[in-house]
Specification:
Elements (H helix, E strand, L loop, with lengths): L10 E8 L5 E8 L5 E7 L7 E2 L5 E2 L1 H17 L11
Antiparallel strand pairs: 1-2, 2-3, 4-5
Length: 88
């Protein structure tokens, strides 16, 4: 993170906590070069998951859950087992 005072590119995080809405993270930082402190707010980007199939068609993230359940069914019938993260 670039220091707004001297422009140095490195800083250390002093304090980190979520905001009241839990949509952003507030971080207190200190510049390694000049020692001044500043606050940054970081947001998490929601990037949609897009699966491109063999026939070049695309499925969006809300359809991925259905696709993963189908993969589990088909793989278990063939003796292979896959585990997917629960944050689907």
């Amino acid at each position: 993170m670039r220091c707004p005072f001297c422009g140095f590119e490195e800083s250390r995080v002093i304090d980190s906590r979520p905001t009241d809405e839990n949509e952003r993270i507030r971080r207190r930082r200190e510049c390694i070069k000049c020692g001044k402190r500043f606050t940054t707010y970081e947001t998490i980007e929601d990037v949609p998951i897009i699966v491109i199939k063999k026939d070049k068609s695309r499925i969006l993230s809300h359809e991925v859950r259905e696709l993963m359940s189908r993969l589990r069914q088909r793989s278990s019938s063939r003796g292979a087992f896959f585990s997917f993260p629960r944050g689907e």
